[in-house]
Amino acid sequence: MTAFPIEAVREKFPALSLADKGRRRIYLDNPAGTQVPQAVADAVSRCLLTTNANLGGYFETTIAAQAVVDEAHQAMADFLGAASPEEIIIGANMTTLTYHMSRTLGRTLKPGDEIILTRMDHEGNVSPWLQLAEDLGLVVRWLPFDEKSWQVEEATLAALLTDKTRLVALNYASNLTGSINRVKALTAIARNAGALVYVDAVQYAPHGLIDVRDLGCDFLICSAYKFFGPHMGILWGRRDVIDGLKPYKCRCSSNGLPERFELGTPQIELMAGLTAAVDYFAELGAAAGEGGSRRQKIAKAFEVSIAYENPLAQRLIDGLSDISGLAIHGITDPKRLGERVPTVSFTVDGIVPETIVRQMNAENIFLWSGHNYAWEIVHQLGIPAEHGVVRIGIAHYNTATEIDETLESVHRVIAMLRQQRS
């Protein structure tokens, strides 16, 4: 396999060369949002400076703006393996789009209908459905994850399904444990029972190739700013499903797809950045030797980036496992590395996560503490929500040297805090 071109990759991201008072930055806050390549920033700027107009007119800038919008939908169709750009709905963010789609789907539901939510999901794929259930008198059934496998098990889902189940909301990968669910198998079980399946792929999209047609789900959502793009959300909907839905929208706005689901004037300049982010993956695949379609190049990019990221994740897990009293909440078995994304969360006996993170942030190592909106996970695990975990998230622009520096800091900070406590 072609070696991952880490130095060439890092050169594309201006933020990676920034320093503060002479101190380097280590970006391990990636599950909350990645840095962007220069090409993304350039695309946003170019759009604002040369194609800045609203849509629907006949002059040059409005025609060019429409091309930007069309290109973004096609780029995401290629990224997700969609049958058509008409299945791609672009909006402000994942949570806003999920609220919008949940209310639209609510028009098809009645009191007593059942929906299944997991204890593994980000709150953005929980609260919209909980509140819809409260509004409509729906029954919510909770699907826990297995604390040994760290995944949602097929048998557990099957046991919850009834002839009243109308929707199952799942996540592809956890933003806290990093675990990847077997979405294709779970989807097949749910759809065989007659339920729609709504998949949150926000945390998976930066780390693995998504093929919506192969998964068999009805909806899948992700966020561009998690995969080196601008702050936007993207929702894919199966054509035969979304074509029959009646969204909330202005009376005089288009009834076409996907326009009927995209409220108001779009974020055209950010759509330009979105296309550039997808093209970044395609360029990475081309550099790895793939000469086919954009979709094929994206697939190659993920092939080489996964092969690069996984050893970094294992290096991090191994280094953390050496610390007594430290518990990693997620898969640690090297043989199961392919069943997780490189997001690693942990707690340490007797030490509040924020105290660790504050010390490491002061060393310009960027990471997070807290529940990180994985509200159901921390409650299932019995972790105090007000404290949460320490979360370290790797992207394919990170290096082994950065992981080693981070591990050295974790060891030193924990030792210092323990000494202060004693």
Automatic annotation (TrEMBL):
What are the Aminotransferase class V domain coordinates in residue numbering? 26-404
Lineage, please? Bacteria, Pseudomonadati, Pseudomonadota, Alphaproteobacteria, Hyphomicrobiales
Q: Per its UniProt record, what PANTHER family does this chain match?
A: CYSTEINE DESULFURASE (PTHR43586), PYRIDOXAL PHOSPHATE (PLP)-DEPENDENT ASPARTATE AMINOTRANSFERASE SUPERFAMILY (PTHR43586:SF21)
What is the protein named? Cysteine desulfurase-like protein
Q: Output the InterPro entries linked to this UniProt entry.
A: Aminotrans_V_dom, Cys_dSase-rel, PyrdxlP-dep_Trfase, PyrdxlP-dep_Trfase_major, PyrdxlP-dep_Trfase_small
Q: What UniProt keywords apply to this chain's record, in alphabetical order?
A: Pyridoxal phosphate
